Each structure stands twice: as C-alpha cells, then as structure tokens.
Amino acid sequence: MFFNKGSKESSIATRKKNWSSKEVMLLVALGSVFGVIYYAFVQLFFVLQILLGPYADLSQHILFGAWLMVAPIALAILKRPLAGVFAELLAALIEVIVLASPFGARVIISALIQGASSESAFTLTRYRKDNLFVFMLSGFFGGLFPFFYSALINDWFSTDLFYLRLILQLISGVLIGGLAAKLLTDALIKTGVLDNFIHVEQKNNAS
C-alpha cells in the first residue's frame, strides 16, 4: 500500500514535468503564427528604412520589440522552462525555412538569444507570475541583452548613435515585446481558446 502510493505520486510528478501533446501543439502553433507575423514585420522594416532616409538603420531598433512577442506569450500560457526559447526558435525557423527570410540563418542565432533574454524575467519569478510588470521586464531584458550582441558583431560601440540605438531598442522591447504582448495574451485568454492551458486566476486577471 505504501509503495503503491509513492509510485502514484511519482507518476503524477513525472507527468507534470513532461510536456503534454497539447502543450507541444500549442507551442508549435504559436511559433508558426508568429513566424509569419515576424516576417511581416521584416517587410515593415524595409518600408520604415525608406521613410527614415539617412537614419534608416534605426528602424531595426524601433521595431525590435515585435520580434520578442512570442516568448512571453508562450511562457505566460504554458509556464514551462524554455517555452520562450523554443517559441522564438520555432518562429525563426518558419521565417528562414518556410518564408525565406532575407536575413538568413543568423535569424536563428538571434532568436535563441532573444528567447533566452525574454525568458529570464519569467525565470526570476520561477514561472509563477505573468503580470504586466513581468511582461515589461521580459521586453526590457529581451531588448537589452541582444542589443549588446548586435553591437559587438556590428561594431556599434564607437558610433555616435550608440545610445540612441540602445534607448530605442529598450523602449520598443518594453512597449511592443512587453505591453503589447501582455494585451494580446489577455485578449487570447478572454476568447476562451486557452481554457485548457491557463489557470483560473489568469482568466480573472485578463477580465
């Protein structure tokens, strides 16, 4: 009797640690949808470059937060370690392999860095909180750490626009990768399509 009970508890714990097929399918769906959305923002990036003229290079920082959105959304819904990284990676794979992104394979490397950076905010809460502050902190980290990676490979440190680039990217991360992602998550929760994944308090908070 004692050993059977222990075995049952162990089995429950194992199931909680493992990803369910529904969770995997949701992650793939999010990654696929945002892969298309991210590609659309690439096209907007080219348009914005034309509009900004001599400051065309700043367009990537203005729109940067858009390429962070899927990580906090996936993390808020699934509350699983690495969900943000996997979601960003899947979106990048859709961009590169299916939609033939003009930026090529480097998008995948960027996605891993962006996903890990955005997820760090949720990691600090042990994946227990998904309020607006956590989302905006996710967008801040998602803009901050990838910026220094890009600054290193593009040699931005010695340029006059270094701090402007950084500020624009952080603002974009917080507002688009954080606030907009939170609003979108709440909107999805209200539709009821995520009822099998979210907790009761999440639905109440989104109301």
UniProtKB/TrEMBL annotation:
- Domain of life according to the entry: Bacteria
Bilayer-spanning residue ranges = 24-52, 58-78, 90-113, 133-152, 164-184
What's in the keyword line of the UniProt record? Membrane, Transmembrane, Transmembrane helix
Originating organism: Thorsellia kenyensis
Q: What is this protein called?
A: ECF transporter S component
Q: Name one Pfam family in it.
A: ABC_cobalt
In its keyword annotation, does this UniProt entry include Nucleotide-binding?
no
